[in-house]
Amino acid sequence: MTLLSRIAGALLPLALLAPAPALAQYQASCTITATAEDAPRYAEPDDPWIYRGTDIPIDTQWLFGELPNGVRYAVRQNGVPPCQMSLRVAIDAGSIHEREEERGFAHLVEHLVFRESVYFGPGEAIPHFQRQGAALGNDTNATTSPTQTVYKLDLPNATRSSMDDAVRLFTGMVTQPTLSAQNVATDVPIVLSERRERAGPARRVQEAVTATLFSGQRLASRSPIGTVETLEGATAEAVQAFHQRWYRPENATVVLVGDADVQVLAAMVEKHFADWDVPGEPAPAPDFGDPVAPPGADPDNPVGEVNIVVEPGQTRTLTFAVMRPWVQVIDNLEYNRRNLLMQVAAAVVNRRLENRARAGGSYLAASVGREKVSRTVDGTFVSVTPSGENWESALADVRGVIADALAQPPSQAEIDQAVALFDVAFVDMVEQSRIQAGSQLADQITQAVDIREAVASPETFLEVFRSISERFTPAQVQEATQALFDGEVIRAIMLTPDPMDANEQELRAALQSPAVALAGGRDDAEPIDFADLPPIGDPALPSLREPLGVLDVERLEFENGVRALLFSRNNEPGRVTVRVRFGAGWRGFEKDEAAYAHLAPSALVNSGVGPLDQNDLDRAAAGSKLGFDFRIEDGAFVFEGLTRQEDLANQLYLFAAKLQMPGWDPAPFERAKASALLGYESYSRDPNGVLNRDLDWLLRDRDPRFVTPGPDLIEDATAEGFRRTWSRLLSQGPVEVAVFGDINREETIQALSRTFGALDPRMPLAPEVANRPLEFPELGAGPVRLTHEGDPDQAAAVIAWPTAGGSGGLVQSRKLDLLSQVFSNRLMDNLRERAGAAYAPFVTSSWPLDTQSGGLVFALAQIDPALVPAFYDEAETIVADLAENGPTPDELARVVEPIRQRIERASTGHTFWLNQLEGAAFDPNRAIYLQSLYSDYSNATPEEMQALAQRYLVARPGLRISVLPEGAGAGAGQMTSGR
């Protein structure tokens, strides 16, 4: 994982620490109870509008109502997180509702709603909610799709008065925004900046896919981002007309979930939305159109539109879809039974496609999925990534696997494996329903409204699934498979880097040729029982058990050097996280091993354990809840899996077996190589790709361990070299096993004793490895100018300053989190809100705890090439002012309060304790400094921020890295790509 991907989403400081509840003393209970004045007038407990016409059991935890003006609402009491409300206002209009001259208006209105409204002056809404603890992007947000626009607010620390006021303010934003000429002129450049940042190959490909697969339908030309011409031509009057036409009570659904009685919530919605009135009759929704086969098409193989998209540097992919008209269904139990049967059928086909790819077939990956898209089509979509240039063979093989599934029933063993995976997932949904966040529940209602279906409780899902167990037969699953591939028209599109690859006639001919059934992907092997697998070694109980000193976390030591942390909490039923940290992480690689580091996330886990290969692992995991994620951190390698107590012993076995007796199946390694070779050229096609390729390497002083290996290095990598490198890395360095969640402590210790306690003693890290630093470029090493081969109006600019690392600096790292967010808010205000120069500039801080170096404060903006110097000037101006004057108290409050509330409200998750205490089995600082987590943020002062800015941000110039289009002027720095 690259540095950019680690931090790009870190718009909140605690994203570096993960969602975090606080220490127990900060947990609160603030459930709002109903009074006689809270009785709603329009609640409909006996006739909920979302269940009308269906036999799906009503989820009585929801209360539904419908106001006389047409507004529908759904409310629910939920205390996860405690003291929070989640408000959604969904408008049943998106980009598909736009007229030709309005393309992009639905999304533009979304921006303008946050700009100014009846209760908020220009730019006041976001700061207001930040002061109340809601973070922009996470808690305060909006989305525009082709069919719906949804406004979102997740407000922490919600009292009766603050909740009521938030609903009032949000009502004013949505129903009475100030759509003035000045505001339109302010927001259009921001939307154009967003459009520019999303431009490039990915958007061109997506637009071509949409135009081809939905040809003749309204969706084909209705991307929510709009066009430059219509956005630049937007007037206040035209935007107001769009808002008045679609923002009407009849088109609105309000969802409110919070730590309050449903009567309170329903009364609040009614109070603030009942008076909403828009004159005139509602506009009818436009006809979305249906997929239609071309005249004279073969009814058994109705191939319609096909398209070839040439994008140099992009990975060759092919998608074909069997399209059926979208039909408004009666969302009843039988409809869902048929859907579940088709999901099992698709899972069987996907397993066969994967088996064939693993065996070294003509494609790297292929999948089948059914999806109802934007109330436009009901389609079965097949995606194929050829392993080389021979796309015809890849397509023929995938069609052959599908043809076999259509012609011959699957085995009962295949069906049973798929059914077992679904059953575990549905059981898990039931177990987790008690702790499902209010925000997720609110989103489920808006999604159900969008697709015109009802909602059901997890218990109902499980019951319906198990009620059709007798229908999971070879004959019925084959029938469901045939239904998946029965449609009105087949459409296809191929992405290729080579214009000589194919033409539309060749693609059409390949799809129209008879498919030859291939049975090679079938897997009828019997299930594997973990009890039959070889033991890790001789079981050994821990030699030491002691309290860690934080709550009831227990620390274990085994004679072989393995240490463990156990934390038992029963408030997350059926949820256990296992995290194994071992070895040296990036420190452990030698300078010539970059390729083996790069390939490991794909190849290492899939190469098997002991006698089990990939397919064996899948069969062993059927009916279990097991995970096997892998990542490389600065100072450790990490295995992680989400499981449950009844599967915990098997989860621990998988991880321990990977360390003790790793499998070395070469097929996953060769597959990872092929994928890396196919994808490498795509890095150069836009600024973000160049940063993903080069940023780690540049910020680590061109350390060859961090280079993204090019085709030469990948080609030279061998399966034997991979085995040699990872045999060393898996066997050396300390091991910490953390097991947090709903566990039986004594049973867990027994399982640890049979697995990690039974490992052979570890090889110690050599001193030169353990103490290997993460170097930042020397003073004077920049600026660095990189180029990309994409659109001429796209650029990216980075400026970074080194800080430090190590757990002894945890307190300082938290203060730097705050400073980076103050910096980020200023950059956002000045570059986006005032200048419209960049859509989402951000600043973040990283501070590795396992190494004493490598920390960074890092600012990035995707921006017009001509404005790159302006980004650097703005960043340096902000830095100089923070060092001279510090932030204002209000600026600091706007970043402290969202963090403080986030700490308090996420108080039930065991993942917090895991993220904060990982490494504590060897490093006592993790537990010691946990005690001050809350106060380190909440008691921060402007003077501390000023001192940190002086120490880290002005003590030396920031390293500037720019990514400009080829042929652009060199004003942003010297030509130093080094690639």
How does this structure look, described?
It is a single chain. The two termini are 19 Å apart. A hairpin with a 4-residue loop joins strand 4 (140-144) and strand 5 (149-155). The chain has 979 residues and is an alpha+beta fold. It has 4 domains: 67-273, Metalloenzyme, LuxS/M16 peptidase-like (Cytochrome Bc1 Complex, Chain A, domain 1, 2-Layer Sandwich); 303-434 and 445-512, Metalloenzyme, LuxS/M16 peptidase-like (Cytochrome Bc1 Complex, Chain A, domain 1), CATH 3.30.830.10; 530-734 and 741-766, Cytochrome Bc1 Complex, Chain A, domain 1, CATH 3.30.830.10; 784-965, 2-Layer Sandwich (Cytochrome Bc1 Complex, Chain A, domain 1). Helix content is 40%, strand content 16%. Helix 10 (333-358) packs across helix 12 (412-432) and helix 26 (810-834) crosses helix 32 (942-953). The chain contains 32 helices and 23 strands. The strands form 4 sheets. Strands 12-13-14-18-15-17-16 form a 7-stranded mixed β-sheet, with helices on both faces. Strands 1-2-6-3-5-4 form a 6-stranded mixed β-sheet, sandwiched between helices. This is Insulinase family protein. Pfam families: Peptidase_M16, Peptidase_M16_C. Residues 1-24 form the signal peptide. Keywords: Hydrolase, Metalloprotease, Protease, Signal, Zinc. Belongs to the peptidase M16 family.
